[in-house]
Amino acid sequence: MIAIVGAGLTGLSTAYHLKKRSYKIFEQQNTAGGLCRSTYVDGFTFDFTGHLLHIQNPYTHRFIKKIAPGTFKKNIRKSAVYCRGRYVPYPFQANLYGLPQEIVYECLMGFIKTHLRKKRSQSNVGFKKWVLETFGEGIAQYFFFPYNEKLWQMDLQKLTSQWASWSIPRPTLPEVVQGALGIQNTGMGYNASFFYPTKGGIGVLADALVKKVKNIKLGTALASVNLAKKILCLQDGQKISYEKLVSTIPLPQLLTKIEDLPPAYKKICTKLRFVSVHNLNIGVNRQQVSPYHWIYFPEPEFPFYRVGFYSNFSPHMAPRKTSSLYIEISAAGSSETSPETLLAVSLDGLERCGIIKKDDRIVAHNYTNIEHAYVVFDKYRQKNLPGILKFLKKHSVFSVGRFGAWEYESMEDALLQGRATAKELI
Ligand SMILES: Cc1cc2nc3c(=O)[nH]c(=O)nc-3n(C[C@H](O)[C@H](O)[C@H](O)COP(=O)(O)OP(=O)(O)OC[C@H]3O[C@@H](n4cnc5c(N)ncnc54)[C@H](O)[C@@H]3O)c2cc1C
């Protein structure tokens, strides 16, 4: 029997692609879906922050059509960066027009200087160096440094650039010049378009998968694992023998649960770093509070790094004549700031940038602390991750998914990794 721990997209996709092989899924929550879930509050549909499906692989298109036909609608990104009191179209580096002239000049000259140096930035250098070598000082200073300091909550010298080379668009010199002159660059980057369900929020994706798999044990948390005996113990005391174990829970948590983990691997549990995200969702009694799908906030005077608008993904996300928003505030490791404080500072920030008006009323809200949100790409991870994953695999444990593989993975990646894992197991 193949034991799958976690019924997020990776676990569900693994089960789906295992077809006739015998498996059981153990999920600690009472609902499947992991981060790909939706909640319903006073007529509003909220996700666990914005979850937009960006598809790169043709298989994902076929897969989505098969499991959830007619559910998703394609949207073309409307996204901006709020800087110096203005909304600059995303990506910042390719759309400088509209910023104060001296800033456009600084950004443009910095980019031209790096371009003339013709030194190609390597993908394995530190993040700070990668940004300077790729975009120059101005763009770094006005966007990449403050934004990433806010998101990662750490000294950027300690961050590697492994995650950046695929996720950050790198315009050419002509494109940067065009953008500085007001000829807008559209369609750049992996997230230029996205798919989103017409009704029900992103959770309908996981719900569709749940209907296609069996043997999901909800409210069942993994307590411990014995690698030598191939036995896992659940929190209710049940012991289960497995042939192979697929774990999608955060890797450090899995390691702490392994009874016979060699001492050499024990310190990895505390040294793999992560960022958590406070997610506030709010409903406002006014239509179209913003024209965007989401906005980045690099400046330190705003507590959030990103704000998005569910009601612009689909009108069915909010009651008529209202809007709905998600706010993302990151914290290093686990954080205990009260939701009330976070809501108060967020509303103040939203008012200062003009999204919320004085007379607006908040008619619904909820809060989630996403404890593991972003894994930190530092040198420790780079050096130690391959060894521990290899060790686990040698003992028939496949640690996969965004937090199992300790990666920067999207929902599409989760679906594809589930498929790849099942293929390997079969
Ligand atoms: C802030 C944020 C924004 C994001 N935005 C996007 C986006 O716009 N587009 C996109 O494509 N992707 C986005 N993602 C990424 C996306 O959420 C993930 O790639 C995907 O949902 C990961 O699925 P998973 O199954 O690997 O992990 P999870 O969804 O985390 O699933 C793991 C499951 O394991 C369960 N579990 C944990 N511990 C135990 C235990 N001891 N016993 C049993 N079960 C356990 C959990 O309850 C959970 O259900 C975002 C992620 C974050 C954090």
List the topology elements.
Blueprint: E1 2-5, H1 9-18, E2 23-26, E3 38-41, E4 44-47, H2 58-67, E5 72-76, E6 79-83, E7 86-89, H3 101-117, H4 127-135, H5 137-152, H6 164-167, H7 173-181, E8 193-197, H8 203-212, E9 216-217, E10 222-226, E11 231-234, E12 239-241, E13 244-247, H9 251-257, H10 263-266, H11 268-271, E14 274-284, E15 294-296, E16 306-309, H12 310-313, E17 323-332, H13 339-352, E18 362-375, H14 379-394, E19 397-399, H15 411-425
Helix pairs in contact: 1-8, 1-15, 3-4, 3-5, 3-7, 4-5
The structure holds flavin-adenine dinucleotide.
Report what the structure shows.
It contains 15 helices and 19 strands. The longest helix is centred in the first third of the chain and has 17 residues, at 101-117. The relative contact order is 0.20. 35% of the residues lie in helices and 23% in strands. α3 packs across α5 (137-152) and α4 (127-135) runs antiparallel to α5 (137-152). It has helices at 9-18, 58-67, 101-117, 127-135, 137-152, 164-167, 173-181, 203-212, 251-257, 263-266, 268-271, 310-313, 339-352, 379-394, 411-425; strands at residues 2-5, 23-26, 38-41, 44-47, 72-76, 79-83, 86-89, 193-197, 216-217, 222-226, 231-234, 239-241, 244-247, 274-284, 294-296, 306-309, 323-332, 362-375, 397-399. It has three domains: 2-36 and 56-68 and 201-270 and 377-425, FAD/NAD(P)-binding domain (3-Layer(bba) Sandwich); 79-181, no CATH class; 274-375, Alpha-Beta Complex (Polyamine Oxidase, Chain A, domain 2), CATH 3.90.660.10. The radius of gyration is 22 Å and the shape is globular. β11 and β12 (239-241) form a beta hairpin. It has a seven-stranded mixed sheet. It has 426 residues and is an alpha/beta fold. Flavin-adenine dinucleotide binds next to α1, β18 and α15.
